[in-house]
């Protein structure tokens, strides 16, 4: 595409100046440090059974942005790895060496413009890969992939965090996009993924990718969404892939004019597409209409009980208004997400969705015991805040930071909380089972915690079924790492098998 610098009325930033905005100042400021730190300080005792690598992704701008209004979503992918074994922990940080980053390093300035908008780029990078690879990581068939939904995956060496290049599954991936939220079926080892806006422009085409346990992309299927929507996450049950189409909409003509890539338009309905996982299933997609327009932020799990399909996810009654505008009400305020279970009777022709709120606290960044994905689960973990335990923190560029991690026991109905402490903000939790055959929920919960007053970061290890007891161990980083999005745990045995 030919860039049109007149598309945005906002003047470009001086090439060495960082904007004085919440995205680029204070605790949210870019860190940009690639390093290795050995034998981190540990308060408490790391469980001897913990042997593996915690790896997570973040958006850490490597250069001052072209435009001062740039979103934190537009930062360059920075991977953080904590390798744990024998009661010790080492920290490594590395940028994902995307084509974008390498071109900007050569120029020593930002060349790519607004979030997902090629019309705002410098002419010298017209047609180049804009991926920042900054959202998540997934480990499957011995390969570590850094992912962002607007691009193809990047292949990463899990030992060194070196970038090995863009990954297309040996040529089988023809799409330009691949979700940051692929799911691995623990029963079969199959990874199911998808892409939207697969040609790089806003359209209604969604492609589903089925990747065998061996790592081979065995088939791609397509279906059409009701309108061009952000499809950030999806759900996977034993027999279905489920897509919630929310009115966070992209209008390509608005993008050409330099407007926000997405906008919230609640005159459109929220629709749920249920796609059979059997070969050819995309041709049989069934659509169900939610009772009101809402946005699915992230998902826990989906499971079947006879003809009843249950979807467990975080839902908000607005779009992500801290990042993208409401096209109908400029003064609308973003509402917090709550965990809901949506139930669909697949044997009925009514198309109704029954909705049940799962617990009363707000939350985000969900986690379940992934060994039980596609089956009914008992234990749910999430980031949250609890004013009874400590005050809310000032709003940041992603919205209000968490102050707590929560655990919900669906069998007993009990809620349990870990409060991170004053001026402290835990991030997405990651569950690690105590052993391969441990019962559901028996293990540890890992979370990065921002110590904001100290401008420093920790990694806490909690008993996953007793968050209120506090950390079993706290791994102290000597510095701050950038706030992140999504992470995983790779067992040491899986690393060795590579």
Structure description:
It is built from 3 helices and 33 strands. By secondary structure, the protein is mainly beta. β8 and β9 form a beta hairpin. The two termini are 40 Å apart.
Question: What layout of secondary structure does this protein have?
Answer:
Layout (H helix, E strand, L loop, with lengths): L34 E3 L3 E4 L7 E8 L17 E9 L2 E8 L3 H9 L28 E5 L2 E5 L6 E3 L6 E4 L16 E2 L6 E6 L8 E7 L5 E8 L10 E2 L3 E6 L2 E2 L2 H5 L6 E2 L6 E6 L9 E4 L5 E11 L2 E9 L21 E8 L7 E10 L1 E4 L11 E6 L19 E6 L5 E5 L4 E3 L3 E4 L9 E9 L4 E8 L7 E6 L7 E8 H6 L1
Antiparallel strand pairs: 1-5, 2-32, 3-4, 3-33, 4-5, 6-7, 7-8, 8-9, 10-11, 11-12, 12-13, 14-15, 15-18, 16-17, 18-19, 20-21, 21-22, 22-23, 24-25, 25-26, 26-27, 28-30, 29-30, 30-31, 31-32
Which terms summarize this structure?
single chain, 5-stranded antiparallel β-sheet, Neuraminidase, mainly beta, disordered N terminus, globular, 498 residues, 6-stranded antiparallel β-sheet
């Amino acid at each position: 595409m030919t860039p049109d610098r007149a598309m945005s009325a906002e003047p470009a930033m001086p090439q060495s100046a960082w904007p004085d905005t919440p995205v680029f100042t204070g605790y949210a400021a870019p860190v940009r440090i690639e390093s290795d730190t050995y034998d981190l300080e540990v308060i408490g005792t790391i469980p001897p059974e913990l042997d593996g690598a915690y790896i997570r992704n973040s958006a850490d701008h490597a250069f001052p942005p072209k435009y001062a209004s740039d979103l934190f979503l537009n930062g360059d992918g920075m991977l953080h790895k904590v390798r744990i074994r024998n009661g010790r922990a080492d920290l490594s940080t590395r940028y994902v060496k995307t084509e974008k980053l390498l071109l900007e390093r050569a120029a020593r300035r930002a060349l790519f413009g607004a979030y997902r908008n090629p019309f705002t780029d410098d002419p010298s990078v017209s047609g180049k890969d804009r991926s920042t690879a900054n959202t998540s990581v997934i480990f499957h068939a011995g390969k570590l992939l850094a992912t962002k939904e607007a691009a193809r995956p990047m292949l990463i060496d899990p030992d060194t965090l070196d970038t090995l290049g863009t990954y297309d599954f040996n040529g089988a991936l023809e799409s330009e996009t691949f979700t940051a939220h692929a799911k691995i079926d623990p029963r079969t080892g199959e990874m199911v993924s998808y892409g939207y806006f697969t040609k790089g422009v806003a359209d209604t085409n969604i492609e589903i990718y089925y990747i065998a346990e061996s790592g081979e992309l065995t088939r791609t299927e397509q279906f059409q969404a009701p309108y061009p929507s952000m499809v950030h996450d999806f759900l996977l049950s034993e027999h279905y892939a489920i897509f919630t189409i929310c009115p966070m909409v992209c209008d390509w003509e608005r993008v050409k004019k330099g407007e926000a890539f997405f906008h919230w338009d609640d005159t459109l309905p929220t629709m749920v597409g249920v796609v059979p996982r059997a070969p050819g299933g995309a041709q049989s997609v069934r659509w169900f209409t939610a009772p009101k327009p809402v946005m699915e932020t992230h998902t826990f799990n989906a499971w079947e009980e006879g003809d009843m399909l249950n979807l467990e996810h975080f839902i908000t009654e607005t779009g992500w208004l801290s990042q993208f505008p409401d096209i109908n009400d400029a003064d609308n305020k973003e509402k917090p997400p709550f965990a809901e279970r949506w139930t669909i009777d697949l044997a009925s022709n009514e198309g109704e969705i029954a909705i049940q709120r799962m617990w009363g606290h707000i939350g985000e960044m969900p986690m379940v015991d992934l060994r039980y994905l596609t089956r009914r689960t008992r234990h749910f973990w999430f980031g949250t805040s609890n004013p009874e335990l400590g005050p809310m923190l000032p709003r940041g560029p992603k919205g209000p930071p968490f102050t707590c991690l929560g655990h919900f026991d669906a069998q007993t109905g009990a809620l349990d909380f870990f409060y991170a402490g004053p001026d402290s903000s835990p991030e997405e939790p990651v569950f690690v089972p105590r052993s391969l055959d441990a019962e559901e929920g028996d293990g540890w919960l890992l979370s990065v915690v921002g110590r904001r007053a100290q401008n420093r970061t920790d990694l806490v290890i909690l008993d996953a079924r007793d968050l209120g007891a506090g950390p079993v161990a706290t791994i102290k980083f000597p510095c701050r790492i950038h706030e992140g999005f999504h992470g995983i745990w790779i067992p040491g045995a899986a690393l060795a098998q590579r």
